[in-house]
């Protein structure tokens, strides 16, 4: 079946450090890939997405590239801020399925001064 | 409204009790989804509505779970005879798009945290 695997957290970084959160997936065909973010006390928000191989999604300084050959969609940011502290979820939308998202377990990021 | 509203925010139920969770989607959004998020886990799909039609209910874990959206707007997720394993955050999301495009325009609510004691 379809699945998403994320690196376990928490990830603790100092402000301005480089961030990588690993995400790999298992799916049939070419799913669409997403990163969602959940800030404390808030609902999930779409951070970025990529719909085909080699696409790069980007938003708010975050980037992720759809790598079909390694079935990965790692999230990166060059310089994190305290305000980036949140839980990050990688997700996929399987091909041929109109509506479902399959999520990873989430990675908590804590950024300190 | 401006966002997806869910109520109640918190619900404590005794085992065996029936509960009803409400979702008010963004006005005009035709697609509505329910997800279940257990502690420390990612959300898991429960069911999907397009307007009032329930197009996919494959994620509902048992026949104790029932969802409806009779007028294509507000939706209710009902859980009968609650059990401890039902304890989770129940998330609702809506989208103005349909079909595969719905995945690209989700707006999530803040969820209802259900605790079964």
Range of helix content of chain B: under 10%
Number of helices of chain A: 0
Provide mean pLDDT of chain A, rounded.
92
Question: Helicity level of chain A, as a percent range?
Answer: under 10%
Main beta-sheet strand count, sense and barrel state of chain A: 6 strands, mixed
Can you give a write-up of this model?
The complex is a heterodimer of chains A (113) and B (117). With 113 residues, chain A is an all-beta fold. Chain A has no helices and 12 strands. In chain A, the strands form 3 sheets. In chain A, strands 2, 5, 6, 10, 11 and 12 form a 6-stranded mixed β-sheet that branches. Chain A has a 4-stranded antiparallel β-sheet with strand order 3-9-8-7, with no helix packed on it. In chain A, a hairpin with an 8-residue loop joins strand 10 and strand 11. Chain A is globular. The model of chain A has no long low-confidence stretch (mean pLDDT 92). Chain B is globular and about 40 Å long. Chain B starts with a strand and ends with a strand. In chain B, the strands form 2 sheets. In chain B, strands 2, 4, 5, 6, 9, 10 and 11 form a 7-stranded mixed β-sheet that branches. Chain B contains no helices and 11 strands. Chains A and B meet through strand 6, strand 10 and strand 11 of A and strand 4, strand 5 and strand 10 of B.
Features:
heterodimer, A: 113 residues, mainly beta, globular, B: 117 residues, 7-stranded mixed β-sheet, 4-stranded antiparallel β-sheet
Produce the secondary structure layout.
The complex is a heterodimer of chains A (113) and B (117).
Chain A lengths: L2 E4 L4 E4 L4 E3 L1 E4 L5 E7 L5 E7 L5 E4 L2 E4 L9 E3 L8 E8 L8 E2 L3 E6 L1
Parallel strand pairs in A: 2-12
Antiparallel strand pairs in A: 1-4, 3-9, 5-6, 5-10, 7-8, 8-9, 10-11, 10-12
Chain B lengths: L4 E3 L2 E4 L5 E6 L6 E7 L6 E7 L2 E4 L8 E4 L6 E5 L8 E8 L11 E2 L3 E5 L1
Parallel strand pairs in B: 2-11
Antiparallel strand pairs in B: 1-3, 3-8, 4-5, 4-9, 5-6, 7-8, 9-10, 9-11
């Amino acid at each position: 079946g379809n699945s998403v695997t994320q690196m376990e957290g928490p990830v603790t970084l100092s402000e301005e450090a480089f961030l990588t959160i690993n995400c790999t997936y298992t799916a049939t065909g070419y799913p669409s890939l997403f990163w969602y973010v959940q800030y404390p006390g808030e609902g999930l928000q779409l951070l970025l997405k990529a719909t085909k191989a080699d696409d790069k999604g980007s938003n708010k300084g975050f980037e992720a590239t759809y790598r079909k050959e390694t079935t990965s969609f790692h999230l990166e940011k060059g310089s994190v801020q305290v305000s980036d502290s949140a839980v990050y979820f990688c997700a996929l939308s399987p091909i041929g399925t109109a509506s479902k998202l399959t999520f990873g377990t989430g990675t908590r990021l804590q950024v300190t001064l | 409204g401006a966002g997806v509203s869910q109520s109640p925010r918190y619900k404590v139920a005794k085992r065996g009790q029936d509960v009803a969770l409400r979702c008010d989607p963004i006005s005009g959004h035709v697609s509505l989804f329910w997800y279940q998020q257990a502690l420390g886990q990612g959300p898991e799909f429960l069911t999907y509505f397009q307007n009032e039609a329930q197009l996919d209910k494959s994620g509902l874990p048992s026949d104790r779970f029932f969802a409806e959206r009779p007028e294509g707007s507000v939706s209710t997720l009902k859980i009968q005879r609650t059990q401890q394993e039902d304890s989770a955050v129940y998330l609702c999301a809506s989208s103005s798009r349909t079909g595969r495009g719905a995945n690209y325009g989700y707006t999530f609510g803040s969820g209802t945290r259900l605790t079964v004691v």
